[in-house]
Model the fold of this input.
Amino acid sequence: MKKDNMSLREKKKIETKNRIFEVSGKLFKTKGFENTTIDEVTKEAGIAKGTFFNYFPTKEALIFYFAEQKAEFIYDLTENEDIKHLPTKERIKKFLVALAESYEKDKDLTKLLFIEYRRYIERSKPVLDKERSPHYRLTKVLLDILQEGIEKRDVKESIEITMAAETLNAVYFHTLMVWLKSENDISFSRDISAKIDLLFEGIGD
Done:
């Protein structure tokens, strides 16, 4: 649902949910995920425990909300008019760079939540709605952009677009993981920008 079409009540609910997530993130970075209690989150956020559970049935649900936020951000980027009408290469490049910059805003929290997400998946093996995951959403968006590129004739008709989308996705997430693990002050957004140039230019004579 677009924010412009939301009622005041719906906007208030989103603000409350985001406030809980923001407070939780600060506590996670200070105390760690396992050591942070829901009681501490509710006290810091100034809400009742019942209010927390209205938005997040478990503490782990905060991890999935982070993933959902990124999936929603991916959707918002596809609707950005400044990006939408660019040639395919520049559109993909600006899209992935903007996504990378969103992660760069808080590397510590991003790293923490990615680690906890993977631990939770490995430990509990929950049934996930793949269409709500950033990984699936990103592949789908890249697939759509490449298809439009073929129609605009700035992408080769002979290209296997599913493989191309999956390759771009794999490069993106590999670059993300390398950046999260790095202790050096490298730029995720500049790194992915350079790799997109390389992918589109190709290797060799």
User: Anything to note?
Assistant: The chain has two domains: 1-58, 60-201. The chain is about 75% helix and 0% strand. Residues 60-201 form a domain with the Tetracycline Repressor; domain 2 fold (CATH 1.10.357.10). Residues 8-31 form the longest helix (24 residues).
